[in-house]
Amino acid sequence: MRFGKLITAIAAAGALSLAAFSVQAADPMKVGFVYVGPIGDHGWSYQHDQGRLAVEKAFGGKVKTIYAESVKEGPDAERVIRKMAADGAGIIFTTSFGYMNPTLKVAKQFPKVKFEHSTGYKRSKNVSTYNIRFYEGRYVAGVIAGKMTKTNTVGYIASFPIPEVVRGINAFARGLRSVNPKASVKVIWVSTWFDPGKEGDATKALIDQGADMIAQHTDSPAPLKTAEEGGVHGFGQASNMVAFAPKAQLTASVNNWSDYYVARIKAAMDGSWKSGDVWGGLKSGMLKMAKFNAKIPADVQKLAQDTIAGLTSGKIHAFAGPVKDQSGKVKIPAGKSMTDGELAGMNWYVEGVQGKLPK
User: Fold this and answer.
1) 222 and 236 belong to one structural domain
2) Of 176, 233, 245, 345, which residue is the least packed, with the fewest Cβ within 10 Å?
3) Which domain holds residue 48?
4) 17-37: per-residue pLDDT in tens?
5) Residue 284 CB-half CA count within 13 A
6) pTM to 2 decimals?
7) How many CB atoms lie within 10 A of CB 341?
8) What order of strands is seen across the sheet that includes strand 127-132?
9) Cα–chain center distance at 31
């Protein structure tokens, strides 16, 4: 009798254990996102957060997303990333260049957690990298600007002199001068990713210097809003900013992180995740161009669409030779194009960009 009761008790305990296991197995995967700006910047961080929301929509209760916004690059980033890992995140996306070393450091301490770093180039067994070929969109914008500028002076608001930003300036200049060799680019460096006041002031300064087209690699709509107030045109960055400057925005480079995030989280769930590097552009759909403003003449719209088609097919390369630097020295000869390695380390201005590149 006692033996029967013991068997019953063991069976009951086993059933409880199985039930507990089932609940544990059904726990959602925690997914972390670290943003350099506020999700309301309507640019870079906003677009990454749209990717996070797409993840929630795709996986429903199978995931629980967490995020930290306006995280400074450096020690603050390391602290935030470590806390996410310690709190049980299974995969963490760190979305700014300056998060590279903090991500690698934390990844060593949490070898079972998967890390994805955006715009970086250092990887490890549990750290992957991903990026978008933003420069393709800058090249398209440059073509439009080259055809529409009246002053032949185009302004560019830049954040920090890292290869990603320099590459965008150069691609814009290449597109510009492919259709208008007389045009040139003036750059103002604001040393911030997101500061509407600084971005707006820099735009005013460029307009005062004769710029009638404004491009940017900063994250707020302030340059476009200031361009609209000044009666000039511009291009949105990272997301479609047309709502802030319906008259000024001619088009925008729109980053699509959603598909990548969904795919990588699925891989983390099914065990197929591996460290690697992805650098997608127009062809992959990671980069898209916003609807053209009706102010763009029909022939210029066609030229821009042809340029998009050429970049997508590979017929056009933004850095096909000859590529010259500011001094006129040939860096890439005719018949060749810059390799991804050369693009990733770009630290010089092409012909047509004014001023010195900060060190």
Assistant:
1) yes
2) 345
3) 28-132+257-280
4) 444 444 445 599 999 999 999
5) 18
6) 0.91
7) 8
8) 63-68, 29-34, 91-94, 114-118, 127-132, 277-280
9) 19
